[in-house]
Amino acid sequence: MKLNFDTYKDKVYACWIGKNVGGTMGTPYEGKREVLDVKGFATAPGEPLPNDDLDLQLVWLHAMENEGPYALDCKKLGEYWLTLVSPFWNEYGIGKTNMRHGLLPPLSGDYENTWKHSNGAWIRTEIWASMAPGCPQIAAKYAIEDACVDHGAGEGTFAAAFVAAMQATAFVIPNIRKCIDVALSAIPADCRVGNTVRKVLSCYDNGVSWLDCRNTVLEMNADIGTGWFEAPSNVGYTVLGLVYGEGDFKKSMISAINCGDDTDCTAATVGATLGILGGSAAIPQDWKEYIGDRIITMSVAEGIIRNLPDTCTALTERVVKMAPIVLRANGAKVELTAGESESDGCELPTADTVSDIRKRLCALKPYQFEIDAGIFKVRVTYDRAPDIAPGEELGVTLSLLHPMQARERRNFGDFGNVPYSLNLRWWLPDGFTVEGKKSVFLYHNTSRDGYPGRVPFHDIRCVIRAGETVEAVNRLVLEVTADGRPTAAYVPLVLMG
């Protein structure tokens, strides 16, 4: 598939302008649970309001520029959280506090997190979509790495995958319903976000008024427990704005805001998505002039990082420079070109395109994290929350994955068809013990050319037992080495006392 570069760049710019318009218009009503009657801006012209929805994406752009598309994962993003993102509210604070205690992402987003089903992740997906135009599977992959830092295996992570996939698809399919259908295929069929979006679509198709649709969504998710800040309903209000607005930018945004709840987030995502769909021409000129080009930040540690873009124009320039690198690194069949866009006969995004993302989300479990040792990967899954009392036991499953299984890249180099003999050694706090295997043979996959092979991973059950005393934070280290190889994995298992 070929995308004209200038058209693509205009869509990216319109994305950020739309994000700024919606965030500014919706912010004064954030948290109001009643039905609203907003008509337009309540702020002064030329004064965009600061918004963490956009702020965090500036940090993620910086992370992608520094780390590159191969290395950027939840653990790297977690380090950027701790250094460059200043707020500690809600899931942001829980995720950061958990990481400061030593809990690695995505475990940091699961432990003691009453906000894992909330809005903090799906509101920051445009950076991933705009660097992966036409590739919802790539955008959703990075959105999941991002979201799980502070949402773990919660609905907040499903919501981020949905919105990222929808927006990436919008670069090449200018039909919002088709974009929504692709995005629904990227998330588990039975998750709250998916059920809510399907309910909104059903209401619209059956002639239900936007107000009755809004009330239906509010009622179906009333039991989540985070009030106006839960992801399923607010994603539902965003989709409500997109479909009930019927392509009209102003009607779409105002419809989303008038649903109430997290109004800056719903409006900003509506604005960004419509900007991607239609480019600059889709954004009303009077609103574009009213908001201007500036980006005002509130959530970035600017004393540490000083080179973030301060306008939508500057942000666009840096995003479009990264996009070809991200596309190439992920093997995308999309080319940004000076010529005409060509999609006839090409493979546009479908449900099949995002099937791997859906499988990944369905396999996501609470209290789980991974360590990559280069030639193999170690996945740790606790049986329950990583708490331990004196004399108490906690079961752990160690999944040792062969590169053929562990890596998503298509080219596994010389590591993919070689067996490994792995050795496990524990370093424990005083009084702690671990029962479980000390070595395992990791078979290579010999199923190529029709030859049956063994599964290239091995699960080991271990039981950790605390001694007579425990500390507030108890760090165990599992050392995994491969015979004849210099690379070792050191896996930090942290248990809260």
Which tags fit this structure?
single chain, 497 residues, alpha+beta, 5-stranded antiparallel beta sheet, 4-stranded antiparallel beta sheet, 18 helices
Task: Describe the structure in your own words.
About 5% of the residues have low confidence. The chain starts with a strand and ends with a strand. A five-stranded antiparallel β-sheet has the order 3-4-5-9-7. Strands 8-6-10-11 form a four-stranded antiparallel β-sheet, with no helix packed on it. The longest helix is centred in the N-terminal third of the chain and has 22 residues. Helix 2 packs across helix 3, helix 7 packs parallel to helix 17 and helix 12 packs across helix 14. The radius of gyration is 23 Å and the shape is globular. It has 18 helices and eleven strands.
Summarize this, please?
The protein has 497 residues and is α+β, with helices and mostly antiparallel strands. It has 18 helices and eleven strands.
Rg over alpha carbons: 23 Å
Oligomer: single chain
* Helix and strand pattern: EHHHHHHHHHHHHHHHHEHEEEHEEEEEE
Distance between the termini: 54 Å
Helix segment tally? 18
- What fraction of residues sit in β-strands? 5-15%
Specify the helix fraction band: 40-55%
Structural class call reads alpha+beta
Low-confidence regions: 406-413, 446-454
Shape: globular
Number of E-type strands: 11
Widest sheet, order of strands: 3-4-5-9-7
Average pLDDT number: 93
Largest sheet: 5 strands, antiparallel
